[in-house]
Amino acid sequence: MDRQSMAEEIERLKAEKKEIESRMSILEAQLSDHEQQQQQKTTTTSPSNGDAAFDGDGLTPEMIYRYSRHLILPNFGVEGQLNLSKSSILVVGAGGLGSPVAMYLAACGVGSLGIVDNDIVELNNLHRQIIHVEAYVGQSKVKSAAAACHAINSSIKIVEHREALRAANALDIVSKYDIVVDATDNLPSRYMISDCCVLLNKPLISGAALGLEGQLTVYHHNDGPCYRCLFPTPPPTAACQRCSDSGVLGVVPGVIGCLQALEAIKVASSIGEPLSGRMLLLDALSSRIRIVKIRGRSSQCVACGENPVFTQEDFRTFDYESFTQSPMSDATRTRLSLLPESARVSSKV
Q1: Does position 335 have pLDDT exceeding 50, yes or no?
Q2: Angle at the Cα of 167 from the Cα atoms of 246 and 258, rounded to 5 degrees
Q3: What is the DSSP letter of 72?
Q4: Mind listing the pLDDT tens digit for each residue in 55-64?
Q5: CATH for the stretch 82-324
Q6: Cβ neighbours for 10, distance < 8 A, ≥ 6 positions apart
Q7: pLDDT over 60 (residue 44)
Q8: Would I find Isomerase among this entry's keywords (predicted)?
């Protein structure tokens, strides 16, 4: 780097330093005001209630300190944190994808975090489902995930849904949230969650991880497509592998899950450009990440097209397992029970 380039870089850094110092002065003044207001109060609010996280229209002193690294970000700042802290996000699935999603949403200060899953923690989950620990093996994943999130941030509201998300209960559960994150690992759930979000007009952050590959997109947001727009008919069953069938390197769902949390935060805080109309593809083996444009919203889509025919009543009675010819479960498929060799019948040529 020559002398002129070094001088220009120094001037740029000085300007950045000046801007950060200015922002810090504003935050310090706001903190001082809040501290004075706190001293004048005669009552206190419980930190375990999501609604109690606010002091009037702003952030509490505790929140200003906790999220201080967020607040000095030029593209996020106080407004972004306020928007995130007032939002409610539902994570469907507390497994490999849902683990980092839930943990980062809790750590970053989402107002209300819902977790839905009916599975229990198993030992072979722990290599990728980092929200769970050995002590919770055999117990509810939702209970385990909620405990981990509460340990990270006790000031947010955490709602436990210890049940499977099905067509019969999905509308009631999803309607309580602003944003949905699909962290499941089966085809029927993908269709069902997408249909539900379209009917309730909720943005959907969808991720998938298998083997050494992963993908991520945002459905039904900013006039983008839904899952049915891309796949009006289910792919062949043989093409729909799951982690329990084909395996997955533990860190891969972690990477995709972190990116899902990022997209959820972007949507909730109204910053950046969410992956609507685009898909992120991860090839972990070659360390390559690509962003590709995907098919736009289909005017013929039965769920979100110009003349949608899929109603809430249709949704409640729709058989997604029959439609996809796949089980609505992330569990390992039942393996064949073969006879021992001594009991088999064979023919001699």
Answers
A1: no
A2: 50
A3: T
A4: 545 899 999 9
A5: 3.40.50.720
A6: none
A7: no
A8: no
pLDDT tens column, 187-217 = 999 999 999 999 999 999 999 999 999 999 9
Question: Computed from CA positions of residues 238, 94, 131, 78, in that sequence, does the dihedral angle turn out positive or negative?
Answer: positive
The gap between the terminal CA atoms of the chain, to the nearest Å, is 81
Take residue 240 and report the two structure tokens written for it: 């729909």
Q: Which amino acid is at 97?
A: L
- H-helix segments, the chain: 3-40, 61-66, 68-71, 77-85, 98-108, 141-152, 170-174, 187-200, 227-230, 243-246, 251-269, 312-317, 320-324
Instruction: For residue 134, count other CB atoms closer than 10 A to its CB.
Output: 8
Confidence of residue 48 (pLDDT cuts 50, 70, 90): very low
Of 3-7, 118-122, 314-318, give the lowest mean pLDDT range. 3-7
* Six token digits for residue 51: 């609604």
Torsion of CA 66, 51, 98, 261, to 10 degrees: -60
- Domain ranges, ordered by start, for the chain: 82-324
pLDDT at residue 324, as a whole number:
94
Measured torsion, CA atoms of residues 75, 76, 77, 79, in degrees rounded to the nearest 10? 120
Identify the CA nearest to 219 among candidates 139, 291, 279, 130: 279
Residue 94 has pLDDT above 50, yes or no: yes
Neighbours of 8 (CB within 10 A): 12
Closest by CA position to 225, among listed 320, 308, 309, 294: 294
